[in-house]
Design brief:
This is DUF1801 domain-containing protein. By secondary structure, the protein is of the alpha+beta class. Helices cover about 30% and strands about 25% of the residues. The strands form 2 sheets. It has a 6-stranded antiparallel beta sheet. Strands 3-4 form a two-stranded antiparallel sheet.
Length: about 140
């Protein structure tokens, strides 16, 4: 995800704009799950991302900015989740997630029905904690 700050688009309107009904249900379900696990409200970042929490980063090149701690976008017929794949136990958990692919630290899903939601929830929880250096304010 590029460095972006939350924009003032309502999350509900963002979800309602997802044209495919099945994808819209998955986007809504993932928004609800991530909100519950992180304990922070969803925010629309840029044009295509729903994110939770905010972290500041600084690269060795000197580039810096803010991005969501965890989040996802719905692109090219898949859900692209970020902030979940870089924890110490993520690799083991991803092995039992179900149908997915990974690339550049992102986890790609075709449908939520194809994955084990308990495993996904653990990935979200661990990713949020690792990225924010603290426990989420709401536990399940």
């Amino acid at each position: 995800m590029d460095s972006e700050v939350p924009v003032s688009v309502e999350v509900e309107a963002f979800i309602a704009a997802v044209e495919d009904e099945a994808r819209r249900r998955d986007v809504l379900a993932l928004t609800v799950v991530m909100t519950r696990i992180t304990g922070v409200p969803a925010a629309v970042w840029g044009r295509s991302t729903i994110g939770f929490g905010s972290i500041h980063y600084r690269c060795e090149s000197g580039m810096e900015g803010d991005q969501a701690a965890v989040g996802f976008s719905s692109q090219n017929g898949r859900l692209c989740l970020f902030g979940l794949a870089d924890t110490p136990s993520a690799k083991a958990r991803l092995g039992s997630l179900g149908q997915h692919t990974t690339e550049a630290g992102r986890v790609y899903l075709n449908k939520l029905a194809e994955v084990d939601m308990l495993v996904l929830e653990e990935l979200i929880r661990e990713g949020f904690v690792a990225n924010t250096a603290g426990p989420p304010s709401a536990q399940t």
